[in-house]
Amino acid sequence: MGKTFLVLGMEKIALMFVLLLFLCSIMASVSGIKIVNADGTIYIRADGSIDPPTAPIKRAENIYTLTSNIYGSIVVERDNIVIDGGGYTLQGTGTGNGIGLSGKKNVTIKNFEINQFGNGICIENSHNNTIIGNNLNNNDCGLFIMASHFNIFKNNQLFNNRRNIVVNGGYLQAFTQYMDTSNTVNGKLVCYWVEEKDKTVPSEAGYVALVRCESIKVQNLKLTGNGQGILLFSTKDSTITGNIIKDNDVGILIWGSLNNTISKNVVANNGHGIRIDGIYPLYSRNNRVYGNSITNNDVGIQIFDSSNNIIYGNHIANNSCGIHIVELGGEAANNIIHHNNFINNTAYVPGSWRVIVSWEMWVPPPRNIWDDGKEGNYWSDYITRYPNATEIDGSGVWNTPYIISENNQDNHPLVNPVNISGIEIPPFPAALDATPPAICILSPENKTYTVADVLLMFSVSEPTSWIGYSLDGQSNVTITGNTILTGLSDGYHSLIVYAMDTAGNTGASVPVYFTIKTQQSESLSPLWVATATVVTATSGAILLVYFVKVKKTIMKANQPKHHPL
User: Fold this and answer.
1) 3-class DSSP assignment, residue 508
2) Which of 190, 237, 371, 507 supports an S-S bond with 412, CB 3.0-4.6 Å?
3) Collapsed DSSP state (helix, strand, coil) of residue 428
4) Domain 189-423, architecture per CATH
5) Does residue 500 or residue 558 have the better pLDDT?
6) Hey, which of 72-86, 364-378, 424-438 has the most confident mean pLDDT?
7) Measuring CA to CA, how many Å separate 247 from each of 191, 237, 266, 472, 486?
8) How far is CA 439 from CA 20, 211, 543, in A?
9) What confidence category does residue 366 fall into, taking pLDDT thresholds of 50, 70 and 90?
10) What are the tens digits of pLDDT across the range 227-243?
11) How many other CB atoms sit within 10 Å of the CB of residue 231?
12) What is the CATH class of 439-522?
């Protein structure tokens, strides 16, 4: 009996203990609500207030200082302030931004430990800010900079982020950041040079960006884990050689840069291995890419709106796409591509196999050159595509061209792979035409016409392989010379004439805007009589257009109209 009582008593005690724990957990959860709010997303509002006000941040006018660790993010909505982490930690859950600046200026962020976010510090469309003395560790991206300029970075240590530094933008100043060698990635120096000349990047560099530089050497480095292993922006006459560049978004990014040499690098396991990029007016031209091993990237080489580059003697293997050439209203023609090995690049694109050559509808397909006149490239699937081809007299060249896409084919595909170890620097062709034709619309003019049929008359500065026009932003209409635009509707119209020269460069005229108004009759109708004479000179052909304005009186309202050419 006593034993039974003892057991029952212990059960009651245990039950009371469980109830006590339950009540404590409720109290803890209730009392912890404020802590969760304070440690969620914290805002420094445009009026200077802190939201929520219970956040562990002390404000003294325009200086905001952390007073404890925060399990969450800080969003900055105010300009001209200082945010001091005081050595405390922002701790994330693997997503979002630790500290986010969007459209902000003159903000200082200093003395933070920022861990486990999508972006440790994210700067978008924000200028003249200062980032100093922060440790950014174990984030997906430590420092993300998008379309921002003139920001200052000092004494920031980035370690073990999947991508330590990512810089993106598409305008003249977007890559102008001031980031000295007091910043490090995984213990190596950040070498972010702006307007330097005749220098060699230090051998202990872990991130390299050359902005508006000239005659720089980047050699024998190992560069991993960044947005770009090496970034060249508006840089010329520089040499990138003998580097190992792995596990970046882009191994080597060449943007709006001229006359650079990219040789004998190992470029592997990146998103894009080598990207030659441009946008008006910063096209990339006359760069030489030769003797590189480019393997296991998503895209081996991408050429985007850039022309007259030489891709020579590279081993391009086991990428999802071997080479991708993109025309987006600029220029991606006359690139010379030969003596490369294209081996087991797996992406299949109908009509172009493991090479993609694409363009937008408002310009004709770009033309690139896939051989040197005697020998082209090695294609690992050649026999599969052309089982009946034969070698030409022991020359090492197949007798059947390798078709890539419209306007793009290798006329002299190689029977055997190229040994790239003995590849030497290729010379540029003596006369490489990179200038698009100049086009001037002579008629119609920027005025109102009272007829529905208007003469289209224009001049082109050099011989052409294609001419077309776009009316009111519609698809191009191919023409061979002056013509008549018939059946135009009443209202406003716009007109652009395009022309491609024999070297594959495409030019566009200045748009002409004119009006058709046929409801109000006129006694006089101006017509344009045009004749065109082509005169051949030693420098090329020049189209001379002579025109005369003729007034014709219409004697009868029903008399038919004539349009002499």
Assistant:
1) strand
2) 371
3) coil
4) 3 Solenoid (2.160)
5) 500
6) 72-86
7) 18, 26, 11, 46, 57
8) 87, 34, 10
9) low
10) 999 999 999 999 999 99
11) 25
12) mainly beta
